[in-house]
Amino acid sequence: MTEVLRSDVLISGGGLVGQVLALALARHGLSSQIVDPADPVATIAPGFDGRASAIASAVWRMFGVLGIAERLEPHGCAIHAIKVSDGGKPGQIDFVTAPESDALGTMVENRQLRLALADAVKAEPLISLNMPVKVTAQKKDQHGVTLVLADGRELRAPLLVVAEGRRSPTRDAEGFTMAHWSYHHHAMIGAVVHDVPHREVAHEIFYAAGPFALLPLVDDEQGRHRSAFVWTVSEKDGAGFAKLGDRGFTAELEKRAGGILGHMELAAPRMTYPLGFHHCARIVGERVVLVGDSAHGIHPIAGQGLNLGLRDAAALAEVLVDGARLGLDLGDAAMLERYQRWRGLDNMMVSLATDGLTRLFGVPGEMASRVRRFGMGAVQRVPMLKQFFMQEARGESGALPKLLAGQEI
What we know:
Layout (H helix, E strand, L loop, with lengths): L3 E3 L2 E4 L3 H12 L4 E4 L4 H4 L8 E5 H10 L2 H4 L4 E3 L1 E6 L6 E4 L8 E5 H13 L4 E4 L4 E7 L2 E6 L4 E4 L2 E3 L6 H5 L5 E16 L6 E7 L2 E8 L7 E10 H9 L2 H12 L6 E3 L4 E9 L4 E2 L2 E3 L5 E2 L7 H21 L7 H29 L4 H16 L1 H12 L15
Parallel strand pairs: 1-12, 2-3, 2-13, 3-9, 6-15, 13-21
Antiparallel strand pairs: 4-8, 5-8, 6-7, 10-11, 11-12, 14-17, 14-18, 14-19, 15-16, 16-17, 19-22, 20-21
């Protein structure tokens, strides 16, 4: 006889967004089954993901509610200032927090995020983690969704949440329409140790070839100063940079940084990946919803990709918890439309803003640079404009879900 395991929600994708959503639901009494073909042991191995993420302060408050901020605290480096310049020329913007205010964000290595989430998920009885598993079939009827696993088990729930990342097979199979294009750029990422303390300051330097960011990390066990870097280069130059030895690559890094952090040495394997844009205007289907990179993929120019996905998780959790309290079917189309309205506009606005910035700062020539620096100077001189951009960086704009305000749902 086939074993059928029932839960309130099915989550396809056991990455950061999928697991945070499961924790948020479990915190409020809803059960979930997570399915993913990846091996969970491999995903927390040191070499699996060398990236670090800037967690917006609103998302950090959600982490506090979910009980993972405490786990991450020793590994997080607050960002109290962001300095933005056009090619390192005069006319930069300095976003600096007031002494009594929250940080703009907290830099955490993705591996530490995964470790903290793994511990929290393991301790939560309302979450069942099915990894690694292969889904061989998906069935849907008027009462719910069933996932058939390769081992014969069937998982059933009223709703399927798709958190599979940029190349989501379930999103594509469900027929969601997606706008997408390539930026013809590659992002090179990694971490360095350096001589000069970063003093909790992030640097974003815009070059015609692409943005270059230095993001503060906590010091290593030897007390050496560390920062993450995100360096965007044109597609045609990506292969050449990838072939450089560590010394040659570090020398190029120091040039791009303009000596801000002094001498550098690589502290982690560097990674390279192509950059593109995709956006689904509709993120809700029949008993299916999209979250995170399955719904939208943006340029890392403002470091908002993961935060956008975690905002999806916070909003969807609130919609589902509110619906469950009213006794509604969690796959109810009218209820899910609230999630569509809530997240559809915010996702579109952030996606278009990052795309516009990418194109604006990619225009070559001295005249274009002068125009950009004039605009940056205007922002620097107008406190209300600076406050607006700082609020965006903290993830505090718009109608915030309760979790992002640091409240239970």
